[in-house]
Design the sequence.
């Protein structure tokens, strides 16, 4: 059986930076499932027409086609019940809160900090699309939106609940990681792959958790290509 | 069997405003357990000597004495397994994140907004203790710390993940409330009982959830005394 994940790539085919695709990469590894992570670019809408969708991740698992990172996690728990990701209904409700925490508290703060790095990391053919869609979303130019000082200060405040949790446990989900960790960690992989910005101080319990997450599943995150690995790309 | 909860009261014995005690009041109601909520004041340390503790909530349940709101929730799940509050280990890990979210993201923002209302709501005999302990914690006078503008703007940002979750479900924990909801809602009861400040706009999905939470368990929160109910107390 072929299992294919359409995975956002940047200026180099090996540079994979979507926070949503990283959630899925970690979830697949958690289940012990192999996957071909096929490179896809923002403007390559045609390649996803078969899924009636225009964004990644898209997972093709045999005859199944699943879109949206959260729905993919749910699918994986249904199709491969061993090593649960989301857990029962109450556990899943709380995982959904963590999803929104990543998307609505962490990512906007990170975005403010790394937006110019992101523009630099996307494929040159995608840059017009990226600039136009993001400037529309932010209601201003990327240059006006960009403010590492504001972004880092916003991120510092947003990290407070995560700090509290990681002072008392190795993972958000307890003694070992599951969907709660992957949903949040994807956002950090996004920033890590496109930027060399230090988002979290060494002394922060979040930093120790990030190091553990990078090492999981054979160093899946640790060994991922970063923009600084692409010769001449980081500016 | 007697069941007693030592519960923080303010300028009126009926004014109960501790966010941590409210968590426990809701958790007990969730289990269908009766309790005598005995009024206690900050400076009445002697009354808690039997528990070797100096803060409320303290729950006395027959021969058991349990301190700390979160530990009381855990105790209730052990002693009364029907109608679980916290759930299994993974669900509980995520509930702990919600606890930190309430304490480290929501409450500091609310505190900034309602600190002078809080001072006004505590019992006159407790005010010196309250001012001194809080000024030490904040590193400045209550008057310097007080800034509804800053607090409300901080709260607006902190509510983002909660908004996302409550757009898709009636309760944080899903179709019906459990510990995730109570851990967070306690903070809103704290603000509601001591202040008439509008913290959340009518149009916000968080507002609709607050209304639902107030009505739960026979209107437990809705019928709670507020400072505005105490004649001549609100200024």
Sequence:
């Amino acid at each position: 059986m072929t299992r294919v994940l359409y995975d956002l790539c940047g200026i180099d085919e090996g540079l994979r930076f979507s926070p949503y695709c990283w959630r899925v990469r970690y979830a697949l590894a958690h289940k012990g499932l192999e996957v071909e992570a096929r490179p896809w670019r923002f403007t390559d809408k045609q390649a996803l027409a078969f899924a009636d969708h225009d964004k990644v991740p898209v997972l093709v698992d045999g005859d199944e086609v699943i879109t949206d990172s959260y729905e993919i996690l749910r699918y994986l728990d249904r199709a491969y019940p061993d090593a649960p990701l989301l857990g029962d209904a109450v556990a899943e409700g709380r995982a959904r809160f963590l999803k929104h925490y990543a998307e609505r508290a962490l990512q906007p703060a990170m975005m403010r900090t790394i937006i110019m790095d992101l523009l630099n990391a996307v494929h040159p053919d995608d840059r017009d699309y990226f600039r136009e869609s993001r400037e529309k979303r932010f209601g201003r130019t990327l240059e006006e939106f960009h403010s590492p000082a504001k972004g880092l200060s916003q991120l510092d405040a947003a990290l407070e609940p995560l700090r509290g949790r990681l002072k008392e446990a190795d993972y958000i989900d307890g003694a070992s990681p599951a969907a709660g960790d992957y949903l949040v960690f994807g956002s950090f992989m996004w920033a890590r792959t496109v930027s060399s910005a230090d988002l979290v101080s060494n002394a922060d319990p979040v930093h120790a958790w990030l190091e553990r997450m990078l090492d999981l599943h054979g160093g899946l995150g640790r060994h991922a290509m970063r923009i600084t690995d692409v010769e001449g790309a980081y500016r």
